[in-house]
Amino acid sequence: MIPLWHQACLRGWFEPWQGVHPQWMEQPEWPNWTTTVLHRSPMAMRYAFMTWCDQMALPTEPPEWLLTPDAFNEHLYVSPEQCMRSAAFIGAVCWFSQPEAIVAWPGQQSTLTPSDGEGRAGLDIALLRTAARLARWHSVPVLFEWRSPVLTQEAILIQGMAWMRRVVDGHWCGWWSRLRLRCAPAMVRELEAQMLNCAGAPPNNDHKAVLMAWRQALQT
User: Fold this and answer.
1) What is the per-residue burial (b if ≥16 Cβ within 10 Å, else e) of 28-39?
2) Closest CA to 148 of 79, 98, 219
3) Does 174 lie in the same domain as 84?
4) How many domains, the chain?
5) pLDDT in tens, 160-216
6) Rounded CA separation 143/97 (Å)
7) Range(s) of the domain holding residue 45
8) Cα–Cα distance between 80 and 126 in angstroms, integer?
9) pTM for the model
10) Is 165 within a domain?
11) Diameter of the chain by CA atoms?
12) First CA to last CA across the chain, in angstroms?
């Protein structure tokens, strides 16, 4: 029997409009006719898939890994909320991996955790502390320089998304084009601009640390 998460990945490939961040529907490239043809016939479905992929710049040919699942595929099909949470957590681990960040942490807790108890990066204080602990044992280097020494929502999201993209491109070729649709369009555009300043391909042991953080984000 095909695991449910693998079924979700297959559906995510052949029905890429499922589970996208709602802000994509407001973008000019969004094919707003898609939902009007989905239930007409299998032929209409195939036409919708091909045309939708063309308009959203998505590959249509399924990659080999999609047909031969491995233990990490369960990370790939996530909701917009899970995707942003994973990016924020990975970015926080990346930030806390810097020695200067650990030193600055005590003085920045008040700016990172507003009165409602939620961190500016969508992480509560407990998860930020978890990210700090994980960084001590499984550090994640930065892919590009931080614009500010202060931890901000945009900074850790972009850094986390950049790592997610690197890991996905390294292990599950072709999936990032779909996974990015679970992130806000403005964040994706900022990520693409920042990726121009990224260093070369990171070692596989860095990928392992990112995957560990990714799993932690989805389990909490």
Assistant:
1) eebbeebeebee
2) 98
3) yes
4) 2
5) 999 999 999 888 889 999 999 999 899 999 898 888 766 655 656 678 889 889 988
6) 12
7) 30-58
8) 22
9) 0.83
10) yes
11) 60
12) 27
